[in-house]
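Model it.
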Amino acid sequence: MDRLIKGVRQFQERIFPKQQALFEKLAKGQQPETLVIACSDSRVSLELMTQTSPGELFVCRNAGNIVPPYGHSDAMNASIEYAISVLPIRDIVVCGHSDCGAMKGLLTPQNLTDMPRVKDWLGHARGALRAFERGGDEPHSHEAPASLARLNIRLQLEHLHTYPEVFARVQQGLLRLHGWLYEIGTGDVFSWEPAEGSWVSLRETHVLGRMRRTAGGELVQHA
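Modeled.
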């Protein structure tokens, strides 16, 4: 705690004065255009990863970056409803990560015996586990948590479509949904590309974003 208090003092004495105009503006309200649904894991620093400033991200975090289907009376349903109804959200990112404890819990449910609330919560990711099992992957392999994390991100994106306002805005082209996987040990971030049916490094998407597909399926550079 002493370290945190020291950090607060450094913020107040060194950081805040340099950005006082920004904070005075933020004191009057927020206008974030991106909602990020991420895992609670302490190793995932969204602002550091995306190099964003205060006020740019509306963040909801929970174990396993889970989005319960629409209609549940929980904090996630309420937060998503608020973000879509009140804030100028243009993009929603579901961000999972490597070495996720929630995914490990799904793979080893016997370890959740003393955590019934966690076990219930992870029930919203059971579809990802079923897909993992049917894919024939080895649940005890080193790659298993990351493989399940990728499936879970895709499942939670599907859950977002059950929210009427989310679905309506996506259909109108007013809202975009994104699935990201953050590799803690390398800093890489991969994006799920439904049209390609694959995960693509964000190091490459700035190139792919300037390209289009021909009728024959070939990628060509935009003029």
